[in-house]
User: What shape does this take?
Amino acid sequence: MPSKKTISMSIRVSEEELEKLKLAAQMQAYASYSEFVRRTALLEASRIVKANMAEESPK
Assistant: This one.
């Protein structure tokens, strides 16, 4: 079975934004704030894609 290729990406945030991300990750018991950001971004991306697909589908 072929392995999935992973891609690394970075984002720029202010110190205040970073602290907010760290706090939210801690409150939600994520292993790290980067895991919190990754999962939250994927949830939002899925929501957006689903909403756009529903708008584009014939009624």
In short: The helical segments are 15-27, 33-56. The mean pLDDT is 92. The longest helix spans residues 33-56. The chain is about 65% helix and 0% strand.
